[in-house]
């Protein structure tokens, strides 16, 4: 609009804004641009780059060499080297994954174990978080402390301790036999049950903490209001408490489900020879078979499996927010 | 007593204050109260919130609780709704002692002071909640929700979530949610506090209509005494967990039982003094500030010569004069200290010789005044003997 003289422009017109931001100086502007970029830079360095390396490896073929796969991009050849390597990449490893039932089975088994464990964690964690949120204000720091306390000892040691408890001549069987509940020691160690016990034990804080965070903010007069309107407490729990705790439930479930799918240590130490989990399969490929490309392909698939629920959660969350508009 | 005029007999045949409707079961000894608080005490660990309180509320009554913050109004309601159990005493609803009945089985609905709207449900679902719990058929729920939404003027907001509403709108949702079940007893904890004046006055009349039409019993807490005056059949003035007076609004205003009530309800001037003479219908009070005596009608309570009393005078019952009138026994003289013009009323603050400030209100019935009163003018306040209320405590 050329006919409007520049001096007439209102104070918040684009031209004055530009002047104002120019005054801030290039240094300040750079910092301002950098702050929101930081998480992206972090992701780029510590997540995307390793993933590209793994993905590239998954397209290679195993070889008895150092590193144990071909092709290796020969950067001395310049662009030709890159193109040469690219032409040799293929998806054979991924087709191999579908050929052998073992991989699908271990992926499914991982998902099953993770799903059951997450439900168990919810069943154990929700009452704990609820009780904590209902506890008198002065006891809450202590209760929180007790949930976090196990982190102070090494995870590995705590899982090893469960071997001592669960093994046939271990603590649990001794106690059960001592009080006469059983005659023969129970075979718990090296079964899926042991995995569940280990997983629920290890991941409980990750379930309890987000649940506690939402329940602690819950306005308890809402439950009184529900009761006042003729809703018995158990129904109020489903109609008021659970919907309002949903963000915490989702956060806790994701925080547990995702790492459990890829869990390696617990099935390795507590599980049996036929407890299939994809983390274990992956490590076998890497270290026993030294088939790095195939192991990389397993890792890529694992990532895709795990991203699935995250996407579903995000989708649900946005839909929920949109509905409330 | 020479100056005593015997218009007290005439007064006995007159009504006190305005009467909203012909409804006074509390005067009928045969009437049975619907709600009975019998010597109820509620003690929190180290604090007595309600202290040995007895209160009867009758069916179809509109009952208002008035009192300063923290005097136990909400606690009183929560005990009836079932969220607190009395430490001592008992509460009866009809013939039934309510203790032990869970809140969801009591025929009582409460509107919470904090509204307590369900944040995950929209306005419509919030309002329908109570009916859904009772398994009312879907189409009936829809009809009643629509009707209630219209009543509280929230129809355009039916699909909004509580966090997308203004404070006043939220308050109306809370009101609608408590109303919709048409309970026997409706407990409203500051139902109109967040509404603007116009909407508040509209809603007040809506509430009164509703209460009469549906035959409900209302127990309402309010901080706004004007609101209590407008709506209530009876008002209870509370202080520190006890009730100071229960009476119809007019009586609480015109015949306060104590200095506390007189000062809590409306504006009042208190003149301290001592009984000098007791007549058949009137007493003479010697003012403590030494500026003469007052002639006051005798109330129901007996007084004796020499007793310390306070005379309560409402500002609107005082008359201002420039020249000392001769035909009246009650004169307070002073200077105008401040003037507040309110449009319909003007408030004059008059400073007496003793330094005491007396508040006088005068209706502005004329637009132009020849010689308006102004600051520092010498004035004389007069009032009839029936205007003063004799308070002994
Ligand atoms: N759970 C509780 N524990 C201890 N004291 C309490 C509890 N609930 C209320 N009180 C105290 O009891 C007294 C009465 O509280 P209540 O809520 O009945 O006051 P109120 O008359 O409704 O006041 P307001 O007009 O401010 O709402 C207050 O002094 C309050 O501090
Ligand atoms: Mg209150």
How would you characterize the overall build of this protein?
The complex is a heterodimer of chains A (325) and B (393). Chain A folds into 2 domains: 14-88, no CATH class; 96-324, MetI-like fold (Orthogonal Bundle). In chain A, a hairpin with a 6-residue loop joins strand 1 and strand 2. Chain A is mainly alpha-helical and 325 residues long. In chain A, helix 4 packs across helix 14 (292-323) and helix 9 packs across helix 11. Chain A has helices spanning 14-23, 26-58, 79-88, 92-99, 101-134, 140-148, 155-166, 171-178, 192-217, 221-228, 233-261, 265-270, 278-288, 292-323; strands spanning 61-62, 69-70. The two termini of chain A are 37 Å apart. In chain A, strands 1-2 form a two-stranded antiparallel ribbon. Chain B is an alpha+beta fold and 393 residues long. Chain B has 2 domains: 23-259, Rossmann fold; 267-391, OB fold (Dihydrolipoamide Acetyltransferase, E2P), CATH 2.40.50. Helices cover 23% and strands 32% of the residues of chain B. In chain B, the strands form 4 sheets. In chain B, strands 6-7-8-3-9-10 form a 6-stranded mixed β-sheet, with helices on both faces. In chain B, a hairpin with a 3-residue loop joins strand 16 and strand 17. In chain B, helix 3 (123-133) crosses helix 4 and helix 3 runs parallel beside helix 5. The relative contact order of chain B is 0.12. Mean pLDDT of chain B is 89; it is low at 1-12. The structure holds adenosine-5'-triphosphate and magnesium ion (MG). Magnesium ion is lined by residues 73-74, 113, 189 of chain B.
Question: How many strands, which pairing sense, and closed or not: the largest β-sheet of chain B?
Answer: 6 strands, mixed
The arrangement of helices and strands of chain A along the chain is HHEEHHHHHHHHHHHH
Biggest interface between chains: A-B, 18 and 26 residues
Can you tell me the CATH topology of the largest domain in chain B? Rossmann fold
Our count of domains of chain B comes out at 2
The count of strands of chain B amounts to 20
CATH fold call of the largest domain in chain A: MetI-like fold
Rough outline of chain B = globular
Binned strand content of chain A? under 5%
Unreliable segments of chain B (pLDDT under 50, ≥5 consecutive)? 1-12
What are the low-pLDDT stretches of chain A, counting only 5+ consecutive residues below 50? 1-22
Q: What is the number of helices of chain A?
A: 14
Mean pLDDT of chain B: 89
Q: Give the beta-strand count of chain A.
A: 2
């Amino acid at each position: 609009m050329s006919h409007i003289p520049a001096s007439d422009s209102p104070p918040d017109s684009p031209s004055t804004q530009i002047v104002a931001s120019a005054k801030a100086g290039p240094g300040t502007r750079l910092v301002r641009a950098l702050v929101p970029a930081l998480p992206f830079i972090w992701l780029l360095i510590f997540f995307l780059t390793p993933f590209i390396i793994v993905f590239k490896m998954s397209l290679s073929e195993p070889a008895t060499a150092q590193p144990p796969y071909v092709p290796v991009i020969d950067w001395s050849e310049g662009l030709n080297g890159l193109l040469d390597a690219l032409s040799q990449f293929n998806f054979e490893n991924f087709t191999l994954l579908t050929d052998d039932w073992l991989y699908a089975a271990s992926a499914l088994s991982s998902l099953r174990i993770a799903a059951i464990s997450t439900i168990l964690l919810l069943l154990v964690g929700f009452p704990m978080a609820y009780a904590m949120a209902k506890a008198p204000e002065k006891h809450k720091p202590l209760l929180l402390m007790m949930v976090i306390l196990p982190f102070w000892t090494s995870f590995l040691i705590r899982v090893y301790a469960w071997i001592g408890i669960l093994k046939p001549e271990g603590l649990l069987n001794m106690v059960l036999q001592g009080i006469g509940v059983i005659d023969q020691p129970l075979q718990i160690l090296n079964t899926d049950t042991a995995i569940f016990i280990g997983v629920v034990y290890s991941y409980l804080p990750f379930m309890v903490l987000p649940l506690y965070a939402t329940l602690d903010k819950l306005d308890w007069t809402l439950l009184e209001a529900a009761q006042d309107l003729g809703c018995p407490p158990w129904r109020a729990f489903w109609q008021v408490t659970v919907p309002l705790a949903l963000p915490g439930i989702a956060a806790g479930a994701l925080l547990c489900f995702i790492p459990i799918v890829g869990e390696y240590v617990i099935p390795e130490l507590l599980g049996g020879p036929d407890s299939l989990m994809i983390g274990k399969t992956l490590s076998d490929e890497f270290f026993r078979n030294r088939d790095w490309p195939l192991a990389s392909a397993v890792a890529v698939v694992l990532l895709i499996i795990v991203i699935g629920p995250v996407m579903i959660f995000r989708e649900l969350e946005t839909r929920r927010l949109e509905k409330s508009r | 007593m020479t100056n005593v005029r015997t218009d007290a007999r005439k007064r006995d045949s007159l009504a006190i204050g305005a009467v909203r409707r012909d409804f006074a079961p509390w005067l009928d000894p045969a009437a049975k109260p619907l709600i009975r608080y019998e010597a109820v005490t509620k003690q929190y660990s180290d604090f007595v919130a309600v202290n040995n309180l007895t209160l009867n509320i009758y069916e179809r009554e509109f009952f208002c609780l008035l009192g300063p913050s923290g005097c136990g109004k909400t606690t009183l309601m929560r005990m009836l709704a079932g969220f607190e159990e009395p430490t001592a005493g008992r509460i009866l609803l009809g013939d039934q002692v309510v203790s032990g009945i869970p809140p969801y089985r009591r025929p009582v609905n409460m509107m919470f002071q904090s509204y307590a709207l369900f944040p995950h449900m929209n306005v419509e679902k919030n309002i329908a909640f109570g009916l859904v719990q009772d398994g009312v058929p879907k189409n009936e729920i829809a009809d009643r929700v629509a009707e209630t939404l219209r009543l509280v003027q929230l129809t355009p907001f039916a699909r909004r979530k509580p966090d997308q509403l203004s404070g006043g709108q939220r308050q109306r949702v809370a009101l609608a949610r408590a109303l919709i079940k048409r309970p026997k007893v409706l407990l409203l904890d500051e139902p109109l506090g967040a509404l603007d004046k116009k909407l508040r006055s509209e809603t007040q009349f809506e509430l009164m209509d509703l209460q009469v039409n549906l035959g409900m019993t209302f127990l309402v807490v309010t901080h706004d005494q004007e609101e209590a005056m407008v709506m209530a059949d009876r008002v209870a003035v509370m202080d520190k967990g006890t009730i100071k007076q229960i009476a119809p609004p007019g009586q609480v205003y015109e015949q306060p039982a104590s200095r506390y009530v007189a000062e809590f309800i409306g504006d009042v001037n208190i003149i301290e003094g001592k009984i000098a003479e007791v007549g058949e219908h009137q007493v003479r009070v010697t003012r403590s500030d030494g500026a003469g005596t007052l002639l006051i009608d005798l109330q129901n309570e007996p007084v004796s010569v020499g007793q310390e009393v306070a005379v309560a005078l409402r500002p609107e019952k005082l008359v201002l004069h420039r020249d000392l009138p001769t035909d009246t026994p009650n004169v307070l003289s002073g200077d105008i200290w401040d003037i507040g013009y309110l449009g319909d009323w003007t408030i004059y603050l008059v400073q007496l010789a003793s330094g005491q400030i007396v508040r006088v209100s005068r209706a502005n019935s004329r637009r132009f005044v020849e010689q308006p009163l102004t600051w520092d003018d010498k004035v004389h306040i007069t009032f009839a003997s029936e205007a003063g209320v004799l308070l002994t405590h």
